[in-house]
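Fill in residues.
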């Protein structure tokens, strides 16, 4: 798991000047998450129970697990989940009798992982939830130490946040420091001018500015966020 404090934020700003530092931080954190999952958590009762209670990963993170090419880990995680989902399917397709409701587990009595998983949805992804917490802590620390000269210098020396993360910062904080907003605006104007030049052909077609545009607008493909935990930040 990634530990996020002032030094983690400053290091991300200093080491990732050509991309969104939070997106880069999340990529590293996700890789660390999967390393811990494959080499420490798989097979442990606590994680297996939480995985079943969440009804597994979302499709995006399940396919990321596939890229790790660890068949034993996938089998250990998903075999119990498959058994649980098949049982759920059979209940769903059971013929109705006199329009009585389908049997559902009594969560007040049954707090087992399978009972909680019965109520879960495919979007209740444990890693998506963790990513939302990482984002919250990173942005919270960014605002908390906004007056630190080293942090300001590191932020201004890079491209700033991608648009989704900047919007989340705005939504959570309501107001951001003038120096940060100014840097974000300048980044957007510079990118817009470069894209317009590329579109009319005045900039070489070998330019990769369109890739920069996509990453700025959407963030990297790996940083999938299906569920956003909208929390207000306090500086």
């Amino acid at each position: 798991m990634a530990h996020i404090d002032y030094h983690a934020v400053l290091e991300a700003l200093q080491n990732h000047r050509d991309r969104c530092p939070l997106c880069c931080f999340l990529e590293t954190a996700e890789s660390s998450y999967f390393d811990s999952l494959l080499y420490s958590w798989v097979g442990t009762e606590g994680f297996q129970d939480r995985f079943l209670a969440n009804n597994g990963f979302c499709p995006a993170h399940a396919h990321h697990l596939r890229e790790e090419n660890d068949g034993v880990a996938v089998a250990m995680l998903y075999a119990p989940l498959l058994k649980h989902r098949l049982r759920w399917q059979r209940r769903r397709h059971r013929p109705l009798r006199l329009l009585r409701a389908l049997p559902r587990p009594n969560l007040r009595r049954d707090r087992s992982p399978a009972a909680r998983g019965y109520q879960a949805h495919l979007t209740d992804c444990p890693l998506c939830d963790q990513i939302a917490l990482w984002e919250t802590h990173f942005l919270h620390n960014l605002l908390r130490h906004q007056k630190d000269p080293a942090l300001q210098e590191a932020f201004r020396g890079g491209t700033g946040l991608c648009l989704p993360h900047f919007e989340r910062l705005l939504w959570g904080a309501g107001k951001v420091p003038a120096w940060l907003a100014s840097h974000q605006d300048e980044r957007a104007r510079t990118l817009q001018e470069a894209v317009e030049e590329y579109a009319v052909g005045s900039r070489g077609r070998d330019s990769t500015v369109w890739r920069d545009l996509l990453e700025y607008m959407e963030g990297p493909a790996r940083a999938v966020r299906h569920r956003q935990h909208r929390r207000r930040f306090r500086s």
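Confidence is low (pLDDT under 50) at residues 96-102, 222-231.
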